[in-house]
Write a structure and sequence with these properties.
By secondary structure, the protein is mostly helical. The protein folds into two domains: 65 residues, Orthogonal Bundle (Multidrug-efflux Transporter Regulator, Chain: A, Domain 2); 123 residues, no CATH class. It is 62% helix and 2% strand. The protein has a two-stranded antiparallel sheet with strand order 1-2. Helix 6 packs antiparallel against helix 11 and helix 9 packs across helix 12. The radius of gyration is 31 Å and the shape is elongated. Keywords: DNA-binding. This is MerR family transcriptional regulator. One of its GO terms (molecular function) is DNA-binding transcription factor activity. It comes from Streptomyces parvulus.
Amino acid sequence: MTWSTRQLAELAGTTLKTVRHYHKLGLLEEPERAPSGYKRYDVRHLVRLMGIRRLTDLGVPLSDIPTVAAADARSKEILRALDAELAANIERQQHMRRQLAAILEDGASLGLPSGFGAAAATLPQAQQDLLVASSSVLTPTAMSLIRDQYTRPRDKMDEEFEHLPADAPEDVRRRLAAHLAAAVRAQRVDRTALTDLDAASRRNGKLTRSVVTQSVAAFYNEAQLDVVRLLHGLLQMEEAERGGTGETLREPPPT
């Protein structure tokens, strides 16, 4: 007994259009025709079509099916490459699920770079925007160190700087600058990747400085900018005595 194209497609769980497409690509041999002109498929066509379907279900591109079906050394290379691609896709999807879980279950913010938890979600929007912009130029190591800072109990003076009003008095600004300078000195000991902008950057230095400088100028208010200027003044005086640069991730805004 033979089958029509429609019957063959039904048996293989596919469509008429797909069977015709496989004929066009040369993947499925054309059958003999009955005197009436209709195609007559037999079990060999069914087995071949089922084999093609199995390979496509595994993700094998149609262009590679003849090679894979030959079951030679080259076919194993193709399957190994496909397996590696699938593994990478699974890891990417698992990462996406972890990020979604952090947002849905832990309260992480959609407005923060990947990996920042609920603690950082309480930051003012300007601070969140600054983190997003910085993530475009900083290395994963530097961003990881910044994330770590938000998993620890927050320093009250850091929070004071983050919420500093634009009309904060001069003595408050100087006090915060001195506090931040002390924090930078501590980071030079155990977080050098956060105090050396060149080491923290994954872009060229000029581009990184432009992003950091513009971000600080755009997302800090006047009082915060003044604190940053005072901070750099303190660091530059210290570095002048030591022969360094006084450079930190908080670049001074343009004047």
